[in-house]
Amino acid sequence: MGEWRLKPEDVDDIAVGAAVLGAGGGGDPYLGKLMARRVLERGAEIVLVDPDDVDDESFIVAPAFMGAPVTMFEKLPSGAESVKVIKILEGFMNKSFDYLTPIEAGGLNSTIPLYVGGVTGRTLIDGDGMGRAFPELQMVTFHLYGVKATPMALADEKGNGVILDTIDNYWAERIARMVTVRMGGWASIAIYPMEGRIYKKAVIPKTISKAAEIGRELRDAKNSGRDPVDALLEAAGGFKLFEGKIVDVSRWTEAGFAKGRVEIEGLGDYKGRRMIVDFQNENLVARIDGEVVASVPDIISILDMETGEPITTERLRYGFRVVVAGIPCDPKWRTPHALEVVGPRYFGYNVNYVPIEERIKVLAY
Amino acid sequence: MGEWRLKPEDVDDIAVGAAVLGAGGGGDPYLGKLMARRVLERGAEIVLVDPDDVDDESFIVAPAFMGAPVTMFEKLPSGAESVKVIKILEGFMNKSFDYLTPIEAGGLNSTIPLYVGGVTGRTLIDGDGMGRAFPELQMVTFHLYGVKATPMALADEKGNGVILDTIDNYWAERIARMVTVRMGGWASIAIYPMEGRIYKKAVIPKTISKAAEIGRELRDAKNSGRDPVDALLEAAGGFKLFEGKIVDVSRWTEAGFAKGRVEIEGLGDYKGRRMIVDFQNENLVARIDGEVVASVPDIISILDMETGEPITTERLRYGFRVVVAGIPCDPKWRTPHALEVVGPRYFGYNVNYVPIEERIKVLAY
Which of B135, B235, B333, B356 has the fewest CB within 10 Å, making it most exposed? Predict the structure, then answer.
């Protein structure tokens, strides 16, 4: 694709589209927009390239936020901690990073690399390690290809920095999670430093351009009068699973995760039915009247019924009228090995993964 | 003093004497003996010098164990993690350490630097940062003199490593404590890297030789038939506070600390009285029938009545017959600034610090 220089509306589209793919997680798109927009307003450029254009010898890192998204409203990031964490890791590794990659799709975690790239003059890659958002550090395709999460760095907004070098990616997750709790609920991280050679094999390509397309279709639909949810589902290749009103949200923070469950009472064609969606940062499993209709690693996204805007799990509230969408995950997540890492059983559900395209066929309506 | 080359019996004496000064904390002296003895048995030398002999420009670090001592019985250290953690910090700082210093007096934390010194061929300094043991990282005289605890490194026995660079020593304590919890209850640490110039001002000198003397007097008493507790109190400059039988021990692990309380029923001259000692890794406050008779920063040490051997807090058990000793702390701990860091009020007690020499005078017996 050559180089792609982002315009302000691209940033907005990416933040919204990535939040759709983020399955309720990956951070708030409004915060993401603000941060990436700020860079462009200062006159900096945000430049992306395709994974195919990346040299085998180049050195890549993923900047992101880690923690319970709900704590980000209590203390907002300034962006400085996201730049600092890259420098900490570069200092430790005594190398400099040629490219930045998003680790996941999400309203904030897709845009924060844009911010860091713009501020530090580094090129971004149009791809990520999930094609969606997941709650734990080892839940990335890089992990499936044997890439180590560490050395990784964490930094908070106060100026504290931490470097981890662990024996495996599960230990990176365990220790880093505790550090984010102590840092106040979230931290900026720089993770999965790796060479272009392995990155190109392990990446899920085109996540940013896909997010931009979803966001753009949603924007166009508003202007053209087309139903925004229909436009979004078409752009994302997703399915409508349910439509209704939120009647209950319970949430708790457990070991550094925002966990919870939302209950939705059906409206229209779905009247008389009830959907329950469980989440751990991201939406994990959706049931209608007790029957599973979608599960990780497929994407379950809750959208505002009128505007089609994605609603992250920390923003779900009683009374919202919503559409629940199911979007197929990348095929890399559907192998038996990948399902051990991100399938419903890993999260404690006694449920076999069935691709959403199959589940949709047997829904009774 | 020139160079002091340790003999096997010195190691034993240091482990026991340091456990007396350790106020119930600082790790188990038996484990400490075993580790330091092993080095000598392999033919390595353990060499100490006086703080006065250290160059201003030399670079010093403190190796130690951090965490809840009780968890060390569940997974024993191998010593390898204590060597590794020094290398991690040297790699990060791109400097090598000329000397090792104990951070505190304790059965294990006084001997682990001997072990690391012997294994890596580094010289030890006869001094430490407490003259006793304390539960938190900022409770060292180095902190009082403005030395930063970080960069510090942590390592576990599995091979995980962590580096912290925090804005102050309280943040180092908070984040490192969570990391030790996640690492399984304890970690090897390398902390307070500093130059000889500041070390010489901030150190409490001669802690190791003082520990060796206490241990030697205890050993000699056993051979000569003298009462070991009397010999120990004389060598340590301490006071007998109580004598009795342990009738209750309650303990809990809270935020990475071994907390608890021991109740002792008086015997002999103390019959009819009852002592309660509160601890957080170390003994903090001792009361007889509700009246405070000793408190941090003075040293409260619980000794086996027959042998005079110190009993660390994690080994206290119902039925033990014990003497409770009070030993004056170093004068560096008795300033108003120091008492803000380690006085009884820091630990949540509504008690003014009164030097043990004063408290002893007003005891009714």
Answer: B235
